[in-house]
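Thread title: Can someone regenerate the structure for this chain?

I was given the following input by a collaborator and told the matching structure tokens would be attached. They weren't. Posting the sequence so someone can regenerate them.
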Amino acid sequence: MNSILLDTINGKPHSRPPVWFMRQAGRVLPSYLALKEKHTFWEMMKKSEMAADVTLMPIDDLGVDAAILFSDILVIPYAMGMGLDFKEKGPVFEKPLKSVDQPNLNPDPDKLQYIYDVIDAIIRKRPADTPLIGFCGGPLTVLCYMIEGLGTHQAFPNATKYIYKNRATTKKLIEAVTDLSIEYLKQQAAHKIDVFQLFETHAGLIPVELYNELFMTSVKRIAKAAREANLPFIFFPKGLSTGLGLLTPEHCDYVSIDWQIELVEARKLTHPKIGLQGNLDPRLLFADQPVIEKRLNQYLDFGKHHSDWIFNLGHGFMPGIPYENAQFLTNWVKNANWGRS
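Best answer:
Regenerated them for you:
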């Protein structure tokens, strides 16, 4: 595959960094928003041809360098027997673990088969040189939703209390989530994804030391499974901050950086053999284009001197971001003079 993303990950620099965006298959695309008016989120995810079309929309509508599977990080607890629904304000679990004395989860990997059908449809439909990124949620992030029960409390007060209060049960839950996540990764690999990303969106919810103690082993296990499947592995630990210094090449090939730390500082903290991805604040895209461009120009020097960098956001697109600004951003990255020989 002739792909700027895969070349960059494999150490073959181009005249510019590759560009793709988290949550690029929804949130800002008019074609997606029109589809959302007629179909529920579950319908869009479970109908393989429709989910494939949504996955590939950003390739045509934005011109990004990669597609990312249209799915959700909470399919793992769904496959573990937790009743899941998606409301207007976010995901809701029927019986969150905070209200259960003894968690009784029954993993059923077959409940994820519809996702592999989606991947097959994407592979059939995608342009020849478009890599497909698969993913799952990080163990802390997934566990937070499982315990809290809904996605409107981003501080997850009950989840953090649960983790501190029920250490032994928490460790068992982490292991169960990790085991199924690894099986999920292996199946995505078998259906021919090209890259895998672990979304640990709430890594900063607990102290770095506690994250390292409870969750880093899981990250290593998932990274090892990706490598055994010959997949490049990107880790997105939002809010990890100085914890970036704890990462080794055992944890990931690339690490995605949020906007709360400058790329130059992230590069100093991070192991030199680990590439970087990110870190534009998605909220910047609510600004006028001259303001956006002024900030983008500040990336040129970093991009000139660091070819092991993927341009991306520090988190996903946000609802209400003007589509024209998302287009402007992609075009700017692809047309800027990065000063690479």
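The radius of gyration is 19 Å.
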